[in-house]
Every structure is written in structure tokens, then in C-alpha cells.
């Protein structure tokens, strides 16, 4: 009891001293920032670990399989279950528009049957909910003019309507870039596997297993090709489907080359080796083209950023001296 009383008295003395209060606050703030930095470091290390990423993918696949596999990742979550019924009535009734949207979603990696409903549900929610929040929580307390309020509501609704399309285009570009980046490694592995005696289906399945960590997007597409062929689909039809759902020019050229090799009966290993050499030459030409553009692109930062500061440093003192001479 006496120790507690002494501790309380010491705490009262510290609280009465402004310097001790400031010091304690600084210590607590430093400890908080340090703990936050450690938490962010652990989070980044956990997200960037390929083993953890693979384990999360296996857990997601197991959860999807246990749920029945009918709904994909887009509709398996709680948000997808909420947005899916909202967007079912907004899905285009025309078959051409529906197939075009399904193809764009497949190229973005969203292959579940309810992906289109979730997409249109998200568009409806982003178009309606933010203007309603502005109308009920912001505009009544800001005393804005009527024209400015209407313009803000229309701009918010328009931004919410366009945001899902912008996200979809960005996802397609990122996935296309990832597929193009992993294709040279996949071609090299395919050449090795086919020259070792494996058939095309077995070689693609083996390559898909080897690329799961380094290039998961391409490995996912190759796994889907292997599942289609094991389910009884013809290899040519599976290759055509691979070409359509990826939309990558290099994969389209690879599929065309393989189909011609199957049609004329030539060696698949030789065909893959020739296409790998052509793809390397194409990548080298693209790199040389980008390198040739660097000098032209450097003109703008040089003219607008470097030259003004150089002129100020080089011509500033003489101009000041001339101004003083003229003034005297």
C-alpha cells in the first residue's frame, strides 16, 4: 500500500512538471512510431513472401472447392454476394455486349460466372452511394450554392460510374504485362521439356507447376489449359481458348505457330525453339526502340527543369552586377 502511494505521489510530481510531461509524451510518441514501423515492415514482408502468397492461393482454392466451385472469387466474398444481385438486372441483354464484357473480365483474370453481375453492381453502388452521402452529410452543412451542389453531385456520380471501367482497363493492362513478361521463361522451359520427350500437354502442365511462384498469372492460364485438355477438350480448341482469354499478341503468335506445327506434322520442339529465338529478337528490337526514345524524352525535363536553374546560376550574378552598374 505504501509503495502504491509513493508511486502515485511520484506520478503527481511528474504531471506537475511540464518538462517531464513533454518528455513522457515524446517517449510515447517515439514508441508508437517505432511500433507502427515494425508493423508495416512485417506486413510488407508477409505480402512479398512468395511462400505465403502460394499458401494463401491454396487456401482460397480449397475454400472455393469446398463451397462447390460454382461461384468464383468475385462472388465468393461477402461484397460479391451483396453486389451480385444488384447488378443482375443491369447486365446487357444483347449477347454481343454480354460476351464482350465477359471477354474483358476474363482478360482481367475474373472468370467466375457472376463476375459481370458484380461489376455492374459495383458500378451501380459507386454511382448512387457517394452522391447520397454528399447529399445527406456534406451539402446541408456547407451552405454551397445550388449550382455548385448540383455540379458536385453530377461529378461524383460520373466519377463513380467511370471508376469500375478504369479499374478494369488497368487490371487488363497489368495482367497483359505480367503475361508478356513471363512468356520468355515459359518458352525456354517448354523447349527443354519437349526436347526431353514430353508431349505438348505434359510439357505445359510441367511448366505451369514451375512458374507458380515467379509468374503466377501465366501459370494460372497454363493450368487452365491443362485442365481443359484433361477434361476432354481438343488441344487445338484449348489453344484457341487460351489465345482468346489472354488477348496477348505474343501468346497469339505462339498459338498460331503451334497450330501450324500440329497441322503440318512438324516437330513441336523445333517450332518452339524457332519461335523463342524470334521472340528474343522481337524483345531486343523493342528494347532498342525504347532506348532510342530516351534521348527525345529527356529533352522535356532538360528544357523545363534543368536549363532554367542553370541559367539562374550562370547568368544571375552577371545580371545583378550589370543592374548595380546601371543603377549607379
UniProtKB/TrEMBL annotation:
Protein name: Type II secretion system protein GspF domain-containing protein
InterPro entries: T2SS_GspF_dom
Main location class: membrane
Cell compartment(s), UniProt: Cell membrane
Keywords on record: Cell membrane, Membrane, Transmembrane, Transmembrane helix
PANTHER family recorded: INTEGRAL MEMBRANE PROTEIN-RELATED (PTHR35007), PILUS ASSEMBLE PROTEIN (PTHR35007:SF2)
Membrane-related topology note: Multi-pass membrane protein
Source superkingdom: Bacteria
Pfam families in the record: T2SSF (PF00482)
Membrane spanning residue stretches: 20-47, 114-140, 146-168, 299-320
Domain Type II secretion system protein GspF: 187-315
Amino acid at each position: 500500500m505504501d509503495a502504491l502511494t509513493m508511486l502515485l505521489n511520484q506520478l503527481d510530481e511528474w504531471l506537475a512538471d511540464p518538462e517531464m510531461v513533454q518528455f513522457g509524451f515524446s517517449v510515447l510518441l517515439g514508441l508508437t512510431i517505432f511500433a507502427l514501423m515494425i508493423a508495416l515492415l512485417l506486413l510488407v514482408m508477409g505480402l512479398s513472401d512468395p511462400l505465403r502468397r502460394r499458401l494463401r492461393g491454396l487456401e482460397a482454392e480449397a475454400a472455393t472447392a469446398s463451397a462447390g466451385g460454382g461461384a468464383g472469387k468475385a462472388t465468393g466474398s461477402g461484397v460479391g454476394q451483396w453486389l451480385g444481385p444488384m447488378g443482375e438486372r443491369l447486365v446487357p441483354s444483347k449477347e454481343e455486349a454480354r460476351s464482350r464484357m465477359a471477354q474483358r473480365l476474363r482478360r482481367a483474370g475474373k472468370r467466375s460466372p457472376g463476375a459481370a453481375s458484380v461489376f455492374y453492381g459495383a458500378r451501380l453502388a459507386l454511382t448512387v452511394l457517394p452522391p447520397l452521402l454528399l447529399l445527406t452529410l456534406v451539402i446541408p452543412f456547407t451552405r454551397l450554392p445550388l449550382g455548385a451542389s448540383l455540379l458536385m453531385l453530377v461529378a461524383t456520380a460520373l466519377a463513380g460510374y467511370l471508376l469500375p471501367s478504369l479499374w478494369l482497363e488497368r487490371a487488363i493492362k497489368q495482367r497483359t504485362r505480367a503475361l508478356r513478361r513471363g512468356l520468355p521463361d515459359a518458352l525456354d522451359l517448354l523447349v527443354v521439356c519437349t526436347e526431353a520427350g514430353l508431349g505438348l500437354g505434359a510439357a505445359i502442365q510441367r511448366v505451369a507447376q514451375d512458374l507458380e511462384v515467379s509468374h503466377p498469372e501465366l501459370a494460372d492460364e497454363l493450368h487452365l489449359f491443362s485442365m481443359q485438355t484433361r477434361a476432354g477438350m481438343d488441344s487445338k480448341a484449348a489453344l484457341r481458348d487460351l489465345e482468346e482469354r489472354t488477348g496477348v499478341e505474343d501468346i497469339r503468335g505462339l498459338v498460331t505457330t503451334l497450330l501450324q506445327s500440329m497441322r503440318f506434322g512438324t516437330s513441336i520442339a523445333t517450332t518452339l525453339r524457332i519461335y523463342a529465338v524470334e521472340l528474343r529478337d522481337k524483345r531486343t528490337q523493342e528494347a532498342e526502340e525504347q532506348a532510342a526514345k530516351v534521348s527525345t524524352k529527356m529533352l522535356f525535363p532538360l528544357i523545363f527543369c534543368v536549363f532554367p536553374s542553370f541559367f539562374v546560376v550562370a547568368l544571375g550574378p552577371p545580371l545583378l552586377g550589370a543592374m548595380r552598374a546601371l543603377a549607379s
